[in-house]
Amino acid sequence: MFFEILTLFPSMFEGVLSDSIIKRACDKGLVSFRLVDFRDFTEDKHRTVDDYPYGGSPGMLIKPAPLARAITASKDRLKAMAPKTVYLTPQGELLTHDKAKSLSEEQSLILLCGHYQGIDQRIIDHYVDLEISMGDYVLSGGEIPAMALIDSVTRLIPGVLGNNDSAPGDSLYNGLLSPPQYTRPEVFENKRVPEVLISGHHENIRKWQKEQSIAMTKAKRPDLWERYFKKQTEQKSSEF
Ligand code: 4G0
Q: What are phi and psi of 107, to 5 degrees?
């Protein structure tokens, strides 16, 4: 996977891209990155990237011309890798495991990080393939959402994760929350690890974990539970 990141703050990515799983994926040749400062695509003396919105709404917007030039240059360089242009915005579709999975099957992504009140709508209409949001809240820029997207997508690329941190075991992979987990010691501040987990009885452990997953999901994420339940009943009824 090739990620091309279009941002006004390329240095924000340095720590994240040179750490842990993403770094290992880079070293293995499974992902690569290029950071582009789209201020370099301005043509005025002051290198202006923002302007006032028509209609008099408060705040500033990213001007269309430098972005259009930057995106065109990226699309052109990556054309052999069929790039999809992704805009990180609170107005996008919420990122889910399924969406991250389908993005992980792309050859290349151009990630567009906006600032202020966002970007000119004509860029969204004519240059952007996909609008993605990390949640219903506003940040000062799209950089942190882009990092979250890169991390979640990279983990799903075959060969990135070792056996010690395998994606199929992840919470949400199967649509349920993870069951409660425990590590040593067996007694901590007078609280014991649930007996079944130290019984060595694998079938009982599996059954207990599934029950706990379901109980936790019902209690904490009724929205996920409803989706899971619907999918299960659909699968069962299609067996007849
Ligand atoms: C576009 C993404 C980008 C529009 C970006 C702000 C949150 C997210 C930005 C705006 C972001 C998210 C309309 C304020 C930059 N904040 N939830 N900030 N508006 O994924």
A: -85, -35
